[in-house]
Amino acid sequence: MSETVYLNGSLVPYDQALIPFEDRGMLFADGIYEVVRAYGGRLFELDAHMERLVASAAEIRLPPPPVQEIRRAVAEVLRLRGLPDASVYIQFTRGFTGPRSHALPQNPTPTLFVAARPVPRPDPTHFRDGATAITVSDRRWHMCHVKSVGLLLNTLAKQEALDAGTQEAVFVRDGVVTEGSATNVFAVFGGAVYTHPEGPHILSGITRQVLVELCRSQGIPLRQEPFLVQRLYAADEVFVSGTNSEVLPIRLVDGHAVGAGGVGPVTRRLQEVFARRVCS
After folding, report:
1. Among 32, 55, 60, 78, which has the highest number of CB atoms less than 10 A from its own CB?
2. Which of 263, 258, 270 has the alpha carbon at shortest distance from 219?
3. CATH of domain 124-279
4. What does the pLDDT average to over 87-113?
5. In this structure, are residues 57 and 92 in contact, taking their beta carbons and an 8 Å threshold?
6. 180 or 121: which leads in pLDDT
7. Please, are residues 226 and 186 in contact by the beta-carbon 8 Å criterion?
8. How many Å from the N-terminal Cα to the C-terminal Cα in the chain?
């Protein structure tokens, strides 16, 4: 049986969820998206995801996303899929507006798509013992804070990491660590956690925001400021975060061992408190 998805007001089998080829999301990557986790049937930080979706839409002059419709669609798709633990994908594009034209249409009819899938879990040994990463040049645009469907350079970076036998690519812009191909990057120096500040060169991840809160509540010093890639190599601990990655330790960067080469105490503590948070 085909899975059920939501498309423009209707619940339909996946193989019947069709859009015109000239949908602007297809032609121009003129759209935005969110990925929301469900734990035991409970959606994690859905409000924050909806706020970011609305903010992304405003940045690229998309009509405001229909938040209440999206909430209903997410709940219904999850119910029909019968997945208590799931990764929910939401995509909102400017839609089909006629023959291809660069100019923004005056009265667009956006396309809204929602699907729920089993969670793509990384190898559990990576959570226990640490994953590996390489650094790549950050050639992306200057609006990374918009969660755009235009992810070509992210996917190329991810593939470069996989080709190198590693799990993640860390972007470096003018010598400064920005974020991962699909994650935010954190480094620990002397017990303090550092991560790139919010702004146009990173996407402010929802998991990142939760970890910032958890550092504060746990009394872990946090610095949201840029740091150079050379300093990353000398970090006591490195970890990345994301909706599906959660809190993923990194034990090697470009072949350099991070700290003692395992999972450090700050990372382990944040893994534990994050696990409790998603279950609360």
Report:
1. 32
2. 270
3. 3.20.10.10
4. 96
5. yes
6. 180
7. no
8. 34
Tokens of 170: 């860390």
The two domains 4-117 and 124-279 share their CATH topology (first three levels equal): no
Boundaries of every domain in the chain: 4-117, 124-279
Amino acid at 20: P
| 158 catalytic per annotation | no
User: Any residues with CB less than 8 A from the CB of 150 and at least 6 apart, and which?
Assistant: 29, 141
For the record, the structure tokens of 42 come out as 């409970």
Mean pLDDT of 131-150: 98
CATH of 4-117, one of 3.40.718.10, 3.30.470.10, 3.40.50.300, 3.40.50.10860: 3.30.470.10
The active-site residue out of 24, 126, 140, 147 is 147
Q: What is the pLDDT of residue 172?
A: 98
Cut 0.90: pTM above it: yes
User: What share of the chain has pLDDT > 90, as a percent?
Assistant: 95
